[in-house]
Amino acid sequence: MTNGYAAPLLGWYARHARDLPWRRPGASAWSVLVSEIMLQQTPVSRVLPAHERWLARWPGPPSLAAASPGDAVRQWGRLGYPRRALWLHATARILTERHGGEVPDSVQVLRGLPGVGSYTAAAVASFAFGQRHAVLDTNVRRVLARLVRGTELPPRSTTAAEIELAESLLPASPARAARWSVAVMELGALVCTAARPDCAGCPVASRCAWRRAGSPAAPARPASQRYLGTDRECRGRLLGVLRQSAGPVPAASLDAVWPDAAQRARALRALVADGLATALGQQMYALPGHPGPAHPPPDTPAPGHRVG
To answer: Which residue of the set 36, 52, 152, 162 is catalytic?
Structure first.
C-alpha cells in the first residue's frame, strides 16, 4: 500500500511533537525501555516525573540490578500496576548478567525480557535503535482504524489484519519508518483522541475514511471496571503502607487501612504470590528482598487478631 499519509503527518509531527525525555537526541535505550514499561496503561503526565526520578537513581541496568526488588517497588510509588517495577528489576539483572548491562537491539531478544510483549519490543527497537517495525499501541490502532478502515475504534484485541495494515504503511527507510510510527502515536495522543477527536487540527483529515463516512459511532462498549472497593484498591492501600516503611510492617498497621479482614487477607496473599510483598511470619510483612525467613500468609485471621 502506498503511504500517502506520511508526508503531511511527518510534517505535523515536526511542528507539534511533545518534548519527552525518552525522545530526545541521545536518549539511551534504557530510558526508552523504562518509558515504555511505565507507559503501559499509564498516561504521559504521570510517567514524566516517575521516569525522571527512576533514571536519576538508576541511569542504567547495572545500577538497578544492584538494588533490591523492594527498592524498585518503593521507587515505583503510586504509578499503578506495580508488578512493572519487578519486571524492570528482573530485566536489569538479565541485561547486566547476559548483555553487558546494555539493552539489546533485537526484537526477539527484547521479547524474552520480563513484561516485554510484541508492542514494547517493537517500540524499543524502533524508537531506541531506529529499526523498521510496526508499532501498535492503543493510539496507533485507533488512528489507523479511522484513517484507513473508516471505523471509530479498533477491535478489542490486536488482529492479524491490523498488523498487516500497519506493516504495509511503514516507509521503506528504517529511520523514516520509526519516525512515522511515533508520529502516528502522537497524532492519536493529541488530535485523534478516543473521546474528542480534533478533526479540524488533523493533518490527514482530508484523507480520513472515517470522516468521509460521516464519523459513524462505534457500538457502545461496557464501562470499565470500577476501582473503589475492589481487591485492586485494597492491594494498593496495603502496598502503600509497605512502601512507606523502611523495614517490616506489623499486620496491625495493615489492618488500619482496610477494614474487611477477608478481602485484606486475600489481597495480601495476592501481593505475596506476585512477588510484591514478603510474609515474615504471621504478623509481619515487608517489600520483596528484605532479609529474614519468609512464610506464606495465613488464609484466615490468627486467633485474637485480624491478620492483614
So the answer is: 36
